[in-house]
Protein 1
Amino acid sequence: MFENIGMMLKLRSAWSTFSSNHPGVAGFISQAGKRGIGEGSIIDVRITYPDGTHLETNMRVTASDLELMQTLREIAAQKNK
């Protein structure tokens, strides 16, 4: 029980620091969470390295992706009981 509380406090502190350091990203994640990501949505990811090179990819969200996310949420909920 106390281990979970400690982990929750650690996560809260880490999220607070992340939000302060990257307010645009934190706001983006919040908005995406409110609206949700549905089947057919496209997620683009791009990393630009300090030397100027970059790596990018994208994915179209499928029904099986959403099922995987739901399964992971259920597993996490069971662990928190």
Protein 2
Amino acid sequence: MYATNKERMTEKIMTFSKYGALDDGGITRLSLSPPALEARAAFKRRAEALGATVVSDDIGNIYATVPGSDPDAKRIVVGSHADSVRSGGNYDGIYGVLAGLEALETIVTDEIPHRHPLTVMIWTNEEGARFEPAMMSSGIVLGKFEKEKMLAVKETGGQTTFGEALAASGWVGDEKNRLNKEEYLAYFEPHIEQGPVLEEQNLEIGIVGGVVGMVNYDIILDGVASHAGTTPQTYRKDALRAASKIITGLWEQLGLDRTELLPQACDDL
């Protein structure tokens, strides 16, 4: 029976948490920033030490591949991203990369037979904390975003474009290296939950059935200003009171009863 190495995995997590480390804990490792490039270089060194071939595509996504016994078999891919949000955690994103790397190291070190080529990958600019939108390069690969438009996106609060940062990173490769659905059998992305449900239900692992999709609305409620001391409540048109009713009504209509979802978290309500 084969198993990954807990101590080895812990070392990976601790080492990569140093790239972009903050004094008060956590990391800021924005896409294609110096800390992100350090993490990428470390990933490449470790993958190549295992005998993997490391290539990148035209938008900087990285692919580290160990061949299988069947040269015609489709690839099995494991990956995630190495960039973070500002003041992010040590596991978010990078865990999926390091879990794949640890699995690869186990297979290589223990000489586990495998027919399919095995690829561990890093997506570029998944968080979108430096260059909006999030999931930029995976979106380009899937045809959701136009590459030229994304290359022209300027960093938040600065003038550097994604294309300029990408060109300076040294990770611009060939478009033919992009993840192609015709060439891989399965894609896995291990991830931390970032929420309370598994812990509340005493579960160690879960399989994602869907991801959040965000739609934002701006709702403006205009009240009427009145003298604070002389206008009775029955005459007032209070915007905040109306907003509170709308919020409560939406929760009720959507069935979002927190006391049913997380009873322990609602003891103070």
Protein 3
Amino acid sequence: MPGSSEVPEIDQCDLLCLDLPHAEDIRTSLPGAENLAAAATLGKALADPTRLAVAAALLAGDELCVCDMAWVVGAAQNLTSHHLRVLRAAALVASRRDGKLVMYRLTPLGRALVDALLGQTAPPEDAAART
């Protein structure tokens, strides 16, 4: 339509083509539905910016209590505690009691995922300094 501001579909083939052996090899090698659901749960646990900040603080600080964590991420203690519960339920954070304090730390899985997420997001000035 002349003068239309519609954007053409660029994410679809113009021709129906299927390399069935190749496509079937890939389809059968994908993780099962249960494994995909578990992985999606891990992704959702880190998809919230505050939860990711909590996890990043644990990556930097190794082990923190809720009070310190709340101050570090700039959130209320009850909100921070909620986010820590979500991360713990996803097995990304572990806790231990130390007297009256509860100390939180990333699990090896949590450490690997947070490092993978945040290790790929170098600020532009850092990238320029490396060249």
Protein 4
Amino acid sequence: MISKKYAQPLFMIFMSFGMSVIMSGVVVAVNTSLSDGFFDRWFYSWMFAFPVALIAAFTMAPLMRPLVNKIASKD
């Protein structure tokens, strides 16, 4: 089992993975349709999308956390 101290980074990795899979698939489908070669185009797109999503998650999380804490209710 992985230590709880790694829960947040692990969460961001899994979320980046899932979101990049979905977003790259949708964008490729919208731009090129679900025609022959879709999965090759999607995988090629995802190979670039995942690292970008991962970097964005680790960069944006520390910036957004204080904003969310400021606007979220303390209930």
